[in-house]
Amino acid sequence: MSVTEMFSHIQGFLSADQDIREEIRKVVQGLEQTAREILTLLQSVHQPSGFKEIPSKCAKARDLFCTVKTQIGDLKTKFPVEQYYRFHEHWRFVLQRLTFLAAFVVYLESENLVTREEVAQILGIEVVREKGFHLDIEDYLAGVLIMASELSRLAVNSVTAGDYNRPLRISNFINELDSGFRLLNLKNDPLRKRYDGLKYDVKKIEEVVYDLSIRGLAKESESSGDK
Amino acid sequence: MKKREGEGSSRKNGDAAREQDTGSCSSPVVAAFKVFQQELDTKHDKYERLVKISRDITIESKRTIFLLHRVANVPNTEEVLKEAELKLEGVRQKIGQVAEELRGEDIHQFHRAFTPGIQEYVEAVSFLHYIRHRSLISLEEINARLVYMRAEGGDPKASAEGPAPGAQVLTFHVTPSDYLLGVADLTGELMRMCISSVGNGDIDTPFQLSQFLRQIHDGFSYIGNTGPYEVSKKLHTLRQSLGKVEDACYALHVRGSEIPKHMLADVFCSRTALLDSDEGVA
User: What ranges does the record list as Basic and acidic residues composition bias (chain B) (predicted)?
Assistant: First the structure.
């Protein structure tokens, strides 16, 4: 095989690779759009009037997740399934956002931490790599961390809206999350950087809780906590 | 933690709450994170093991390349080439370990851990191939040698791929981009070889090398920016190497014409002849 032949052979491979990436990029753009729509929808929970509408907003978000499912279904057809990590970078970010959104919806509905299985189910993907297009564990954890900072905002805003109980519940939730993350031996990677931001969320919520308790605004729930 | 405590008693409340939570290990969140901990640790361990093997591969490949540079200075080339071949066989065993680690995994997930080693191996193996055959080794030829037979058939999943029961075939595929990057590094070695062969009085090799390098350069130009990001970086180095080789050829050509015809004939016959005449002319 001559040198020229060899290079054109490889060039063929590279341009095929580029084509796949182009296709993926198109679908991911659609996904990002839907993710933004869900985010905009959920942002209204920070409004004073939005607190009552949480259930209806969550239901609407669930509807939009159906669109996400079809889009991810489309994405799955764009590349060979066993090469997930070859193109991982393309959807990594949007998958983290979507995990965040799913986790946020689940939290608003039930005040529980979303499991990996639940996220996978909401997004219509798998949990383990062997089964197909899956949610990487680091992406799941990153998504959960994005939710933590959203919750610290929610704690602040719920005080403004006159809900003094929610911050305490959020505080408990975030503290539990923090102790969970403490168990992980993170390397010096992007997830680690994200995790380092969690302490600021914890701090912010604690400040809110402090403000509430020093003014006696959280009396009712505190007494229930002491029992 | 410390910093937060230093900021005042305001955090007491939160810290107490946290202690309560950490105390209850049975909480579903903590339980879930214990699973994540294991999963992440397994993944990181595998990654680190691959990095280690990759480093070994790099070191051995580099040694092979140094060994091959000695080819020009020793009388018995075949011996050196055999030794290099032996060293590369050892490297291939190491790549077998990588393949073993990657069994059933997505090779792209851990690609970054071992790509430096693989590139170095491609460089070494293509250098040896060039010295032997004066041509560029193909990706298929490289991959063809990275097939491993394992006697113990442990994994029932993998045994489906193996032809014979008990023995299983394990293959490692060098990705086209690793191949490209390895070849790009090869050009640096070829440049060094060209310069040292001029020093040794070998007139043929520089011209062959410059032609070969030009072909590779043309190939890379053809690929241009479509390749991986690192390729465009290495293209610059390749251009420099090519420039050096072309300059050397130019010098040889110009100075070569100054050598009298009958002596030039001697020059092509033996290397030692050139060394003498070179001294005479200069």
Answer: 1-21
| Phi, then psi, of A126 in degrees rounded to 5 | -105, 170
Nearest CA in chain B to A206: B14
Same domain as B36, residue B168: yes
Same-domain status, B36 and B132: yes
Ordered by start, the domain boundaries in chain A are: 1-135, 138-227
| B237 and B128 both lie in a single domain | no
SS3 A134: strand
Same domain for B156 and B182: no
Q: Which residue of A has its CA nearest to B140?
A: A6
User: Given 3.90.1150.10, 2.40.30.20, 3.40.50.300, 1.20.58.200, which CATH number is that of A138-227?
Assistant: 1.20.58.200
Q: How many CA atoms lie within 13 A of A13 on its CB side?
A: 14
CB contact under 8 A, A1 and B138: yes
Please say whether the beta carbons of A4 and B135 come within 8 A.
no
The secondary structure element, H or E, covering residue B140 is: helix B139-144
- Coil, helix or strand at residue B163: coil
Which chain A residues are within 8 Å of B9, Cβ to Cβ? none
Nearest to A14 among B13, B176, B218 (CB): B176
CB pairs under 8 A between A and B: 125
Q: Where does a domain end: B153, B174, B195?
A: B174
In chain B, residues with a C-beta closer than 8 Å to the C-beta of A172 are 17, 21
Q: Do B84 and B141 sit in the same domain of this protein?
A: yes
Cβ-based neighbours of B213, under 8 Å, separated by 6 or more: B187, B190, B191, B238, B241, B242, B245
Q: What is the ipTM of this complex?
A: 0.86
CATH 1.10.760.10 fits A1-135, yes or no: no
Q: Which residues pair with B68 in a beta bridge?
A: none
Same domain, B134 and B246: no
Residues of B in contact with A185 (CB under 8 A): 37, 40-41, 44
CA of B261 vs chain A CAs: smallest distance (Å): 34
- Calculate how close chain B gets to A34, using CA atoms only, in Å: 27
- B201 dihedral zone (left: phi>0; alpha: psi -120 to 50; beta): left
Residue B258 lies in a domain: yes
Question: Given an 8 Å threshold on Cβ–Cβ distance, is B27 in contact with A205?
Answer: no
Q: Mark whether B185 and B272 lie in a shared domain.
A: yes
Spell out the per-residue pLDDT of chain A, length 227, in tens.
688 888 888 888 888 999 999 999 999 999 999 999 999 999 988 988 877 788 999 999 999 999 999 999 999 999 998 899 999 999 999 999 999 999 999 999 999 999 999 999 999 999 998 888 999 999 999 999 999 999 999 999 999 888 899 999 999 999 999 999 999 999 888 999 999 999 999 999 999 999 999 988 866 544 444 43
Q: Is residue B156 domain-shared with residue B191, that is, in the same domain?
A: no
Of B4, B138, B218, the CB nearest to A203: B4
